[in-house]
Amino acid sequence: MANHGQASFWAQANALLRKNLTFQRKRIWTNVRLVLVPLFLCLLLLGLQLMINSVANKVPKAITSCASEDLSLSSSGCPIPNPPLLPPMLEIPEPQSRAVKSNFLPYSDLPDVSCRKTGTCPVTILITGNNQSLGQALSGNIFGGSFSVNTSDLLPSLAYNVLGSAVSAGENNYDDPAIDPEFPIYNIQSQCRRPNATWPLQFGKIKTKVKCVQGLCLWRNSSAEVNDEIFKGIWRGNPERMTNEIAAAYDLMSTDTKNLDVTIWYNATEYDSSGPLVRVPRLISLVSNAYLKFLKGPGTRILFEFVKEVPRQASNNNGLPDLASMFGPLFFTWVVLLLFPVILTSLVYEKQERLRIIMKMHGLGDGPYWMISYAYFLIISILYVASLVIFGSAIGLNYFRINAYSVQSVFYFIYINLQISVAFLASSLFSKVKTVTVVAYIMVFGTGLLGSFLFGELIESPSFPEYGILALELYPGFALYRGLYEFSQSALRGNGMKWEDLGETGMAKLFYIMSVEWFVVLLVAYYIDYVSSSGKSLFFFFKKSSSVPSPSPVQSQTSDNVLIDMEKSDVTHEREKVEKLRKEGSTGHAIVCDNLKKVYPGRDGNPPKVAVRGLYLDVPSGECFGMLGPNGAGKTSFINMMTGLLKPTSGTALVQGLDICKDMNKVYTSMGVCPQHDLLWETLTGREHLLFYGRLKNIKGSALTQAVEESLKSVSLFDGGVADKPAGKYSGGMKRRLSVAISLIGNPKVVYMDEPSTGLDPASRKNLWTVIERAKQNTAIILTTHSMEEAEFLCDRLGIFVDGGLHCIGNPKELRGRYGGSYVFTMTTSTEHEEEVESMVKNVSPNAKKVYHLAGTQEFEIPKQEVMISDVFSLVEIAKSQFTVFAWGLADTTLEDVFFKVASTAQVFNTLS
Questions:
Q1: Whole-model pTM?
Q2: What is residue 169's DSSP assignment?
Q3: Helices 9-25 and 366-394: crossing angle, nearest 10°?
Q4: Fewer beta carbons below 10 Å: N end or C end of the chain?
Q5: Residues 602, 653 within the same domain
Q6: What residues contact residue 11 under an 8 Å CB cut-off, 6+ apart?
Q7: Where in the sequence is the domain holding 493, given as residue range(s)?
């Protein structure tokens, strides 16, 4: 198969796009469920709203139509273009709670407690200040005379009277709870000639009554006395809840004939919201008029005719709470943020399963990966948010219907791009899906709660500075909450968010913050991903390129290479060959490792671990180099460095003339990898895997189809529909064969195979060896294995790796000749003849060494230079003539014997060193 060169940017993007579309097509219902999540949540919100409406509709209402002229409009959702005119009233205590003489108050000017039995206790107002005579003069001007009213011109005539009520005010002045047939309105007079006398009065269609009550103004010598009397008069916890309430109090302070200076006490203990403030204007009017009469005479006054609320538009649900608008910021913050864990876990999953790196090893660049992945997440996010807005509008949520859709679209579009960028940035901090899932969902719910109970309060706080709000909005979750909060407020006001409202609501600054942050976060995330994947330092651009020449071979030699005995002449020769190739500046060889070293830092008090000790290696094209070694010898660390998973501690390697420390992204374009563990997508078939990696190798059209079919046939995955089964249903051996096929597709220049035949049955193993043997003709292959048979069949040269160092190198025949200068003689007899057998062997070869002994079976290593094969046969004939020989054998040294001998010797040597 011919090499098709490096795939272009768009060819890589096309390969990844096709793979992702295939992958998503197989999990289409998962995506559909994700997009439908907003529908279910909106339906939940609608169900709660309908439940509240249903319960509220069972409660009798005073208003049944927006055409009604009743005054109870404040609780309806009808528009009020012309709010009613209402008489201003004082808030006064109930008759049984008004101030009287008491043992805990030292004042004798209060009325006797007997007035409570007759219901004639006066309404008491306290006065103090710096000028008692002025205060007493004003006291006589505060309350009016007898009640008189002109029904044809009601409100102006009522203004001549001082009205009060024991009923708490409402939150606004669209109506007044005091105007009700069940409760009297009190006319406060200086002296009630007819105590408890009542007069009928009608406001619109509501009939009520006015009752006379005396107003009593009492002087106190200081504001401290007033404060003490008011404090003691409030409810003291007795079972009857009897109180000694003062209606109000004035501190005239430094008031004189040129200056009115007054402080007013008013009672807000029993009220919520702004209700008490509705009653305060009448207190201000009374003292102002009393002062005016004092200056200009009793005929001068300013009439306080009525109070009137501002007009309002229709509210939602006929006065019932609109849950979507009230709880929208919290609820929809959670809804939109639910996308964040989905995106983040997807990115971390590819990182955890090393799917991203295996794609990169086969030539996928960072640019195509980012473009296609970002586009996919953006499309999913757009569909998700669009379904939220569409479903919410369809079921009638004013939160979506009132606010301009264009404003919502721009806001959500900017935010979801920011959210995707943050997910890419956050994915660089995590490597485990379980960890990132927990963290992401904590962030989702934590952000919603903090936004609602902290950030929302700060937005509404007039004392919190605007720059503080802007600083908090730099956190994307709070920026989302702020936008949803403004949509909610606009929906509650009934006017909706329009483009012209952006400046007044702060949305314009929010759009600017999110847009700038989107691009900054995206650039930072791409940069961090680039430096981490390329093996460069985070601040590599600050480092000046060094002009110091590279050290000579002698200078670069490490302490691990200083002691080289004569038995390692092959390793020495390999090092010298590499040094010579580096001096010449052009290798012409596929792989050259120059003093490659990897040291893992020590942890928990343990010393650093040297995994690879100054490795020198040259592998030309067309050669399969086998790395043998015990577990933990450093073979996988070496492969990981060569494939970019690990960065070398020192030294380097050249692949097709490219430095793995500087040009790893270019190295990937000519490389194939069969990792130790299969890195596959469980839902993709074997054919789809090969199509994807084939496109990454720039194979197109019919050539791609042919290459895929040949690869599948070569590894016995073509027949029986196996090629079109999901890889998740493959056996371990089938996955291994697919991994080998992936590493070889596209005829890469360099291939790394880490134990490729692990888990295969003998027939499949033999077939796989044939495939690798055929592929190495134009490819340099580095293969690690524990199978001596596999090494002998496939490898042109072998290197035995022990404790991080290469201890011998050569073809299998050379290694057997160098390290296997002995015959292995085995004989099995009865146990009583063991000594006789050993004596016979010593007579033939004095330096023979017994290496195995068990129940009559003995094994000896006989030096080849001491005996001839005919001597051994003669020994066997003599033994058979003297006793029974159950079995015997003579064999040359195997590669396994060589491996065992070199590994044992090297470990002893390293221990002694």
A1: 0.66
A2: P
A3: 40
A4: C
A5: yes
A6: 695, 696, 698, 700
A7: 29-45+324-534
